[in-house]
């Protein structure tokens, strides 16, 4: 996308941020319904992921699930306008919180331990980050993927940093600045469930399929003596907003066995996906990296 096109797209997002959420949600679901037949490669990826993860599910049900997933995905794309441009007070009113949102502050004050917020890739992932910045006291830190277009990159960083005290670090950079931030007490917003290749990863089951999964959550938590708390983003129907679930911290985690820890995290994520399967990011190539000798599944 060229510079003028990017500016026009960002301007459109700014205009959309003024719409009532029920209207924006309806437009987003319409966009998702339009993308479903047009985004053929992503639709096929989602169908393949579901076939691998739920082989017993009838094909007609998988196709219906993918169609519904695109509607939720379309919502998440347009609702990003709110998180980039809407007043923080408005965003805060639209987020419901369940669970122990004060864990990170309490742990740091009583034990000096930083918290890792473990946030799987549900379509409302941006809301989880916003909720952490808006509704709890600990400052945050995260890693982000640098965008090839500098205008989009700047807009994404500005949108993620404007809601509270946060630092974000490019994935391509050294981890040392991130580690210093965590040691200084910042909570770490960690996304554990994408395929970044075999480096520093283990092939552990994800719905029974070997998936290259980063060992970093276990290793970092052990190295930096962190509490690990899963945070799940749920998008609510219509204009009701979002519900963010701050789950109890994972007990007896981490251990000395990083691979077993990583497999355990996948099981926790699986359990949450089963509660709202259409909202998980099925369009990602979760099984792109295969164990040695195994062919591509896509």
Task: Characterize the structure shown.
- With 298 residues, the protein is an alpha/beta fold.
- The protein is 49% helix and 16% strand.
- The chain has eleven helices and nine strands.
- The strands form two sheets. It has a seven-stranded mixed beta sheet, with helices on both faces.
- Helix 1 (3-16) packs across helix 4, helix 2 (21-38) crosses helix 4 and helix 3 packs across helix 4 (59-85).
- The two termini are 27 Å apart.
Secondary structure: elements and pairs:
Elements: H1 3-16, H2 21-38, H3 40-53, H4 59-85, H5 88-93, E1 95-99, H6 103-111, E2 115-118, H7 125-135, E3 140-144, H8 150-161, E4 166-170, H9 176-183, E5 187-190, E6 201-206, E7 209-214, H10 216-223, E8 227-235, E9 242-246, H11 258-275
Parallel strand pairs: 1-9, 2-5, 2-8, 3-4, 3-5
Antiparallel strand pairs: 6-7, 8-9
Helix pairs in contact: 1-4, 2-4, 3-4, 10-11
Quick overview:
The protein is an alpha/beta fold. It has eleven helices and nine strands. It has helices at 3-16, 21-38, 40-53, 59-85, 88-93, 103-111, 125-135, 150-161, 176-183, 216-223, 258-275, and strands spanning 95-99, 115-118, 140-144, 166-170, 187-190, 201-206, 209-214, 227-235, 242-246.
Poorly predicted ranges: none
Large-scale geometry? globular
Beta-strand proportion: 15-25%
Give the strand order of the largest sheet, numbering strands 1, 2, ... along the chain: 1-9-8-2-5-3-4
How is the main sheet built? 7 strands, mixed
Rg estimate, integer Å: 19 Å
Helix/strand order, N-terminal first: HHHHHEHEHEHEHEEEHEEH
User: What structural category arises from helix and sheet content?
Assistant: alpha/beta
Assembly status: single chain
Give the helix level as a range of percent. Answer: 40-55%
Overall number of strands: 9
Number of helices: 11
Termini separation (Å)?
27 Å
Arithmetic mean pLDDT: 95
